[in-house]
Amino acid sequence: MRQNLFSPRKLVRKFTPAMRPLPAVPHGAVQMPVKTGETLGRIGSLEVRMARNFKEVKKAQRLRYEVFYEEMSAVADAQTLATRRDADPFDAYCDHLLVVDHASLKRNKLGRLKPEIVGTYRVLRQDVADRHGGFYTSAEYDIQSLIDANPGKRFMELGRSCVLKPYRNKKTIELLWHGLWSYILRHKIDVMLGCASIEGTNPDAMADQLGFLHHNSLAPAEWRVRAVENRFVDMNRRPAADINQKEALRALPPLIKGYLRLGAFVGDGAVIDHQFGTTDVLIVMPVSELNTRYVNYYGADASRYAS
């Protein structure tokens, strides 16, 4: 990252984390990660771990529905409305990181009390994606060119991140990041990537935010990926000198600011996602470029919140 006066890291530290063609997957064929019952971290009543079974994946999908469709502006099709779950075929072979609150118990259909799922992240490793038709992100960005240019590196896709509104605080976000860091270490991941969203589908209305990202956080040539041509939206909508850097940063979603704080880059061009009512930017995070403060905070062995 550039260390000029308006570098994202300096500003973040001062002021602060269309339906796509999908491969066919047999219904219910969910692949669960190894050691699904293992706790990756705890803070008080909150625990971070991977989903243990398809029932927990369905609960994560209901959480995503609540956030994306009820709170935000995603447009549901008939099946999504009927099930009240945000689901797609990628869910069947992704791993699902969960934050559960053991102090908030809810009864399941059998009347048993279960801790509530309050946060989730969907992760997809390259070796798994290669067996199932590729990454979700490839519908928006030409990420295959980046993968092909780095044959010795392990890529992982991040997506569908959301947290229940009452839990959008430092504690929950830190647990999600701690869980991701544990997962990265376990699977020896070299590069994280995925789309992050700004609410709204009018790029001119977010010209300062997009311009800020373009001028300050555009990936260097060796990590740069361009939006697919038929969906490319130019992020360079305003000269850097005309942008109020501090205000533009404040307007960015917390998740994108969190990525910048970690040391992430953004791809070339944005993409409008009409289904979710968002404008997406590509996040690229080589593990070797992660902010050392982040690594030291969570521990080189992800021990900070280990139980």
Distance between the termini: 34 Å
Largest sheet: 9 strands, mixed
Helix and strand element order: HEEHHEEHHEHEHHHEEEH
Regions with pLDDT < 50 over 5+ consecutive residues? Answer: 1-34
User: Beta-strand level of the residues, as a percent range?
Assistant: 15-25%
Number of strands: 9
Helix fraction bin: 25-40%
Number of helices: 10
Rg result:
19 Å
The secondary structure category is: alpha+beta
| Overall 3D shape | globular
Average pLDDT number: 88
Can you tell me about this structure?
The chain is α+β, with helices and mostly antiparallel strands. Helix content is 32%, strand content 22%. The protein has helices at 8-15, 54-71, 78-83, 126-131, 143-149, 170-187, 207-217, 245-251, 254-262, 292-298, and strands spanning 39-43, 46-50, 95-107, 113-125, 155-163, 191-199, 265-266, 271-273, 278-286. Strands 1, 2, 3, 4, 5, 6, 7, 8 and 9 form a nine-stranded mixed beta sheet that branches. Strand 5, helix 6 (170-187) and strand 6 (191-199) form a beta-alpha-beta unit. Helix 1 packs across helix 8 and helix 1 crosses helix 9. The chain starts with 7 loop residues before the first helix and ends in a 9-residue tail after the last helix.
Short note summarizing the structure:
This protein is an alpha+beta fold. It has ten helices and nine strands.
Describe how the helices and strands are arranged:
Elements: H1 8-15, E1 39-43, E2 46-50, H2 54-71, H3 78-83, E3 95-107, E4 113-125, H4 126-131, H5 143-149, E5 155-163, H6 170-187, E6 191-199, H7 207-217, H8 245-251, H9 254-262, E7 265-266, E8 271-273, E9 278-286, H10 292-298
